[in-house]
Amino acid sequence: MSQSRGGVQVLQVGARHHFAIPRMLQEEKSLHSVVTDTCPGAGAIGRVLKALPQPLLPSVLKKWSTRSPRGVALEKIHTSELSGVYQLLASRGVLRDHWDFDGPIFKQYEKSCMSLDLSGVKVIYAMLFEASPRFIRKAKAQGVKVIYDVYITPTWHHTVNAEREKWPEWEGRERVEREDFERRVTEMIELADILLCPGENVVDGLREFEGFDASKVRVLPYGCGIDFEGRVNEAKPGRVLFAGSANLRKGLPYLAEAAKILRERGREYDFRVAGGVDESIRSLPECEYLHFLGRVARPDMKEEFLSADVMAFPSLAEGCAGVVHESLFAGLPVITTKSAGSVIKNEQGGLIIAEADALALADAIQAVVENRELRDRLAQGALDYRERLSEQTWKDGIMELVNELQEGGAA
């Protein structure tokens, strides 16, 4: 494949995909820079995080300390650390959550972006919403092309708002403001040269918005951002893993209900929930049979994938859930929904169930755990996805898009 002729600037809050996208671009000598919030070793806070032993850090900072930008030169990383501090405050309930576009989190990130010198930047690869329309207009005025990574279906807020009506005690956060959110999506559609979608579920969501232009759409499933170093899952029977933020969008109430159903059937499986969780959710009586691990460091998370019996991920709205593809890459069978946006097909690496159906989830978990022949067949099917989900395949797809834009293609 021909090498990109210019620099790509990546905009991402957090360590999305474990910094896989900037790492792949750097491998191809195409990375100009990365703009993120907080990163160990980069920026004042990042240098302190890297210097301090992890056991000395308060729990709220341990996640930041594990955001290792493996394979990305620190001098290419620009941090918007005040934006990260505001996110930390939001996670503690001090500020409104991440989706307040007029709040300090987005405003500070925008301010950091606006201060950057765009000399040498030819393409911006921006995660959904993490590039303000004002900054993108500035970049496009200088001839920069824009790829928007639409990492979640843009209609997810409908699902979340509906779930909050059904489960008011599960999440106390305010509703996502529909008009503000949908205006932002419409602006993104207008400004993008390429709308990169990890699955057809995301394309379907975009179609519901004014100005949708199918000619801008490219579909590229995410690969696996974890290196398992050649190891393959060795299951501990009855260990059921859920990975991701423990919230309504990812279907946690239905996982809790499925665990209860199975306990009533006499199946005492180990339901392990790896990811951030509010204490208000952890303490709900409905979650009695869930084992909350909290935020898990990346090396330990690899061990969770490699030792679980089945991944149960009943998500209601995603783009392309990375944890599903990481599970497949590890050889771990997955039970999930179409809304997870994965490449997985029913009985090929896992089982697909209906959304918001705790009984179907319980039945599927029991079938995989109790029927070892089925479980082994699904595990082999999971490994069959490895080439399609490899980082090389993913990188090739991204480089094709970058080169397309630099050769004058797309909008």
Automatic annotation (TrEMBL):
The keyword Glycosyltransferase applies. It is an enzyme of class 2 (transferase). Its EC number is 2.4.-.-. It comes from the Bacteria. Keywords: Glycosyltransferase, Transferase. PANTHER family: GLYCOSYLTRANSFERASE. This is Glycosyltransferase family 4 protein. It comes from Rubritalea spongiae.
